Amino acid sequence: MTQILDWRPEPGEVVEFRLTTDRAPVPHHMPASYFQRSHLQSAAANRAAGRQQSPWVAMAFDLAGRADLDALTEAWQGLVRRHEAFHTWYEPDTEDLTGFRLPPDSLTVRPARVGDLTSTDDLRAHLHRRIDEETAASRPGVLAGVVRRDTASTVYFAIDHAYTDGHSLALLFDEIRTRYYAACGGASVDLAPAPGYLDCNRRERERSASLTKAAPELAAWSEFLAAGDGGFPGFPVELGNDAEELLTGTRLQYPVLTGAEARAFRAYCGRHGGGFGAGAFAALALAQWEFTGNDVYRVLTAVSTRAYPRLLHVHGWQVNLVPLLFRLPASPTLAGTIAAAQQGFQRARAGYDVPLHRALELLLEDGAVPAIPPMASYVDGRTAPGSRDYLRADATVLTGPDNASGVSLWFNWFPDRADLVVSMPDTPEAAAGVPKYVDRVREIMLTALAGPRLTS
């Protein structure tokens, strides 16, 4: 996960894959999801106010040699026709977020040569500008292209975050490569039709409409809010943002464990009643207690809403934030905290289908949700399709320049390592305090591996 301003792509010949159609878009009547609505309305408000923003996510990865344009064109066309996220959208500047769709068989992808860009800075600036332009468009906000070189070519793709998430980007990495290599060899790719995100939106609205403040599905949310006097948790160190304004953000990336250490840590957690994620949350909670004396750990954590195997093929923003809450034991240790963290994580995850915005709409008087809610996410990316090729392909998730009011954390476990990405306000206080907290979290995890294996 890299901010585009920190990305260093090698120069080369830039070619874009432009989506065309001979059909006019027609309205559809499926409502936006709660997260889509919040995201699109916030982005529209920022544009109207002239505030800088980059509400997109992107992926870049390498193909060996000078990319075959015909094969890549065929690959992109097959993908955008297969997935609803690339031919349906919501008009962000309309009051009710009017939805539109295009017939998928009307979509054609054509390569368009932009030219040779001979410096890394010029290439990055060009791609940043083009991504901002295309993903802000009211039609399907997609930009795809390739930087061609003789030794290796970098494929890139960006889309408004409203229509994608990390799992979707992993699907794209695997499907584009599968289609590309098949096209290079003259083979056909027979992929089943993929479910679309609009049906997921429909189910979310139907479930949410029946919820009331007293619904048992909201019990975890009620307990979470009551533990904080009705508010969200703060961060254990000073951030220099007492007004909780949305400030310019900065991003840090920490290597936490090697691949072998991550597997050993998972085994350690298993011996103490939890999984890797529970161990990571337990370490976060222990560091919080050491810094503040607070023995109740609360955080929003990200969970997938892809509840059934067939939904694993959906391209869309199929993620929710749920309330994780647990209390440390009387004499806190990592070994003694893992089981409590596991139970809290399982309870939080059970509410995967209660939308954050709907829960707060019912439980809080103003129903207010921070523009970027502070959260801690754990993802085991080892089983994603193609994940063992991430390192070889230099696969990188790109985002726009960060904005932050609080701290967001992403624990990611890949085949070769586990790392921690931190987004925080770019303030002197955060720069002084957050790394100390994160270093302590990492130290707690590593100390568990160094101690006696059978008695700790």
Which tags fit this structure?
456 residues; alpha+beta; seven-stranded mixed β-sheet; five-stranded mixed β-sheet; 25% strand; globular
Question: Can you walk through the features of this model?
Answer:
The chain has 456 residues and is an alpha+beta fold. Helix content is 36%, strand content 25%. The protein has 11 helices and 17 strands. The strands form 4 sheets. It has a 7-stranded mixed beta sheet, sandwiched between helices. It has a 5-stranded mixed beta sheet with strand order 13-16-17-10-15. The protein has a 3-stranded antiparallel beta sheet with strand order 3-6-5, with no helix packed on it. Helix 8 crosses helix 9. It starts with a strand and ends in a 6-residue tail after the last helix. The mean pLDDT is 93.
Radius of gyration: 22 Å
Give a count of the beta strands, DSSP E runs of length 2 or more.
Answer: 17
Most strands sheet: 7 strands, mixed
What spatial order of strands do you see in the largest sheet? 1-14-4-9-8-2-7
Query: Class by helix and strand content?
Result: alpha+beta
Name the average pLDDT: 93
Contiguous helical run count? 11
What's this, in brief?
With 456 residues, the chain is α+β, with helices and mostly antiparallel strands.
Give the topology.
Layout: E1 2-3, E2 12-21, E3 26-28, H1 34-49, E4 56-64, H2 69-82, E5 88-90, E6 99-101, E7 107-117, H3 120-135, E8 142-148, E9 152-160, H4 166-184, H5 197-209, H6 219-226, E10 247-258, H7 259-271, H8 276-292, E11 296-304, E12 319-327, H9 334-350, H10 356-363, E13 375-380, E14 396-399, E15 403-404, E16 408-414, E17 417-425, H11 428-450
Parallel strand pairs: 1-14, 13-16
Antiparallel strand pairs: 2-7, 2-8, 3-6, 4-9, 4-14, 5-6, 8-9, 10-15, 10-17, 11-12, 16-17
